[in-house]
Amino acid sequence: MLERLKQRAVRAELMDDFTAGGPELTEALRHLRRLNRLFAAAGPTLHGVRLLWERAGRPERLTLLDIGCGSGDVNRALLRWADAEGIELCITLTDMTEEACAEARRFYRDEPRVRVLQGDLFALEPGSADIVTGTQFAHHFTAEELPAVAAAMLRASARGVVLGDIHRHWLAWTAVWAATRIVSRNRYIRHDGPLSVAKGFTAADWRQLREALGTGFFIYQWRPLFRYTVVIGAEP
Q1: Rounded to whole angstroms, what are the CA distances from 200 to 22, 79, 102?
Q2: Spatial separation of the C-alpha atoms in residues 101 and 96, rounded to whole Å
Q3: Which domain holds residue 39?
Q4: Rounded to the nearest 5°, which phi and psi values hold at 107?
Q5: What CA–CA distance (Å, rounded) separates 20 from 101?
Q6: Assuming Cys at both sites, which of 50, 133, 197, 222 could form a disulfide with 173, CB separation 3.0 to 4.6 Å?
Q7: pLDDT tens digits, one per residue of 32-61
């Protein structure tokens, strides 16, 4: 296992097959919420958004665009943070799949600050939101693809980009392998969960992305429960 985790895995996840889906994918999105709570997936994204908000001078209004949102559950933590800080926060959730968008609409059906749009990252208008986020989104792309993905997210943002993703480590892999088998029998969850860790990142991977982008403001920080926060500031 240690040898296999030295390099990022390149196999596609089941969720990357947009020709599949249906009720099994919808169930997976619901089970994924349990895993997100268990492994505190919202923490790195919230930490990064807070950093960009402070860098922007703590504005009273903020727009956020979450790419590859799934059911968008991690954004509940951002809404609570906005309430505590008195920030007028509006969030747009975007995903490629109908199942994810339908589940996100159901999950936020009573939340007027959240809207859901089905769409593609590369079709977004420049400056679509103050901050563009991707939680457990970056690991779906290869090292060769990731600079273009990050650049597209930057173009769509006015303030910058926040990536919250997984630290590739044997302990994280073991914990996720065990947790997915405890909380779910869903094929997506059991296959994609451990593979997500194998497709995750180390500090060297983030340094490679920073060099490829050549941007001025780029920080990455290790966060609890084997996560990373990556913050990329938009150019003034």
Answers
A1: 26, 27, 27
A2: 8
A3: 4-233
A4: -65, -35
A5: 15
A6: 197
A7: 999 999 999 999 999 999 999 999 999 999
How much is the pLDDT for 18? 84
Residue with tokens 């593609």: 120
Spatial distance between the Cα atoms of 159 and 58, rounded to a whole number of angstroms? 12
CA 118 to chain centre: 16
Helix (H, G, I), strand (E, B) or coil at 162: strand
* Total-model pTM: 0.95
Q: What is the edge-to-edge ordering of all strands in the sheet holding 88-95?
A: 114-118, 88-95, 61-67, 129-135, 157-166, 227-233, 218-223
| CATH code of residue 151 | 3.40.50.150
Average pLDDT over residues 97-124: 96
- Per-residue model confidence (pLDDT) at position 3: 65
Give the containing element (helix H, strand E) for 116: strand 114-118
Entry field: residues in the chain: 236
Please state the domain count of the chain: 1
pLDDT at 1: 62
pLDDT (tens digit per residue) in 12-38: 999 998 888 899 999 999 999 999 999
| pLDDT exceeds cutoff 80 at 236 | no
